[in-house]
Amino acid sequence: MRPDDLNYRHLLYFWAVAKEGSITRAAERLGLSVQTISTQLGQLERQLGQALFAPQGRSLKLTEAGRTALAHAEQIFQIGERLRQALSEGTHTRPRFAVGVTDAVPKLFAFRLLESVLRPPLAVRLECIEGEFEHLLGELALNRLDLVVADRSAPQRANLKLHSHLLCNVGISLFGSTELHKRCAGNFPHSLAAAPLLLPARSNPLRGAIDAWLETHELRPDIVGEFTDSALLKTFGRAGLGLFPAPASMREDIAAQFGAVPVGPLQGVSESWYAIATQRRVQHPAIAIVQAAGGKQLAGD
Amino acid sequence: MRPDDLNYRHLLYFWAVAKEGSITRAAERLGLSVQTISTQLGQLERQLGQALFAPQGRSLKLTEAGRTALAHAEQIFQIGERLRQALSEGTHTRPRFAVGVTDAVPKLFAFRLLESVLRPPLAVRLECIEGEFEHLLGELALNRLDLVVADRSAPQRANLKLHSHLLCNVGISLFGSTELHKRCAGNFPHSLAAAPLLLPARSNPLRGAIDAWLETHELRPDIVGEFTDSALLKTFGRAGLGLFPAPASMREDIAAQFGAVPVGPLQGVSESWYAIATQRRVQHPAIAIVQAAGGKQLAGD
DNA sequence: GCGTATCTTCCAGAAAATGGAAACGTATTA
DNA sequence: TAATACGTTTCCATTTTCTGGAAGATACGC
């Protein structure tokens, strides 16, 4: 490699830093130490003969040259990622559509959202990945995912151009087996005082809203379980181990699949689901379909 | 860097090998040893999990996966090169147009070919590079040049998609100072038997044609100098040190600039100039202008 | 001011790239 | 058929580059 050739490893680190907005976060995402990134970044700047970042307080800000570099790097690594995928998936006829879904999103909702992209005219090969919200956003940034469906919108980070599209906002009720319903339906919500409850984990935005709701109603129910995965939560609910929160509008599905009925509404508590994508010149055609499907479910409520 | 990330250095070497058609040539161009390239290529294939090349006799042939990889690599390194240039040239308003010109091309011809791109509507910043034919083709392959003007067309190498456009074909005469003209113009070409001659170097295609012409006429003139640079050759000619070959149609220019007049035509000897470009989706707009300018000079002859 | 968060510099150990030597396989030539 | 030329691959010691611990510099918030 000639000395004046671009060092693509350095460029990759630069790209990560630019998108994450800080060396520290980029180092985390790349699984490297900050010194390493800082050093390589310095080498890249020295080689290019100009600064890509300017110190901005205790963090960094892209220079004009940096913006140019970022725009090019974005393209380069997008193509690189496509190459990696093209070679790893062999010669499938169906185009790939990779979606990350956080645990908290009801499987049925995700299913209805995504089922249509499998059918013509798109007929993609759907690749579904579950995982931590932050991890999924990382994969999105690396162009390894086309879309993330989550129960929260994306934090706005500098240069990481994410677009969060609200798919659906639903009111939440507590559901329970018929037995629990018998015990708790009367005098709701005061009947909850001694009721067993299955709740989302604290990392889940819905959990915060439910905790606040319990607070206002001065209720101290017996929290018997916490889950990140909404399906697992409902499976425990099906066994009658506790009341669990779920979208009021999914009453029928929950009755059919989990044998549970609404015990009472959590007034003012709602859950939102978002489709999060990177802003690209050419969006994956399946994204529009998914967004439309989200809108339909919203209208159906 | 994650272990399953693309190694862009390896990809660069693969790209060079694919375009050059052999590891040996790629190693030469990159200034590395064959073992190095071979090793890295092997690593890339192992990491991707499939062969990019298949042995074909004692050389290599792209596999289907290799063709996919090449197409992507081509884009990646083209963008990388644009980035390098965008950053090195700062914020010029004029778009860059980089042309390689081999020594053998008369400067005046090159000038007439290229002058129009400096003027509106294109108004590019012209970057002229002289050098060995092979070296210039290398720069072209690396996308560091947009066009090469040379006295020969490009050899057809596998995967190195070059397009040679014939600009001009001109008949050659021998020119000389008025003094030499006096000595040699009578009884041409037999008068050449004892005449001092300034000729292009043996690497030049025109030289082959001239040698053949001398052979057929059974002439053994006194070759006093060999030059790769046609301008330097003519400068010696101007000093009266020998007769020199030049396009018959440039008579007036040569009289004005080098004080030399035609002594006699080399029947059947001609020189061609070519504009050589890589085949891209979007050609540099200046290339069309240059090709048109070449056509005009041809018409004028 | 003091603790904390962030980037940078220095340096030694770890990892990767590199090329010399030689083996191997295939085409060309005698 | 053998000899030769050409091109790739493998082995391995050397060189270069990358990496992260430690410590220093600078900015922000309380």
Oligomeric composition of the shown chains: homodimer
Please, how many helices of chain A? Answer: 11
Q: How confident is the prediction overall: mean pLDDT of chain A? A: 83
How many strands appear in the DSSP assignment of chain A?
10
Order of helices and strands of chain A: HHHEEHEHEHEEHEHEHEHEH
Supply the CATH class of the largest domain in chain A: Alpha Beta
Query: Total domains of chain A, how many?
Result: 3
Main β sheet profile of chain A: 6 strands, mixed
Instruction: Supply the CATH architecture of the largest domain in chain A.
Output: 3-Layer(aba) Sandwich
CA(first)-CA(last) distance of chain A = 60 Å
DSSP helix fraction of chain A: 40-55%
* Mass-distribution shape of chain A: elongated
Proportion of β residues of chain A?
15-25%
Q: Largest contact between protein chains?
A: A-B, 32 and 32 residues
CATH topology term of the largest domain in chain A: D-Maltodextrin-Binding Protein, domain 2
| Radius of gyration from the alpha-carbon trace of chain A, in angstroms | 23 Å
Low-confidence segments of chain A, given as residue ranges, are none
Look at the helices and sheets of chain A and give the structural class: alpha/beta
- Which sequence of strands runs across the widest sheet of chain A? 4-3-5-10-6-9
